[in-house]
Amino acid sequence: MAIISIPDKNKKIKEESEIREFLQNVGVWYDRWEANATLNDNASQEDVIAAYSKALEPFMNNNGYKVADVININSTTENYEAIRNKFLQEHTHTEDEVRVFVDGEGLFWFNLEGHAVFNVLCQKGDLISVPAGSRHWFDAGESDPFVKAIRIFIDTSGWVPHYTGSDIEKFYLE
Ligand SMILES: [Fe+2]
Question: Which end of the chain is less packed: N or C, by CB atoms within 10 Å?
Answer without folding.
Answer: C
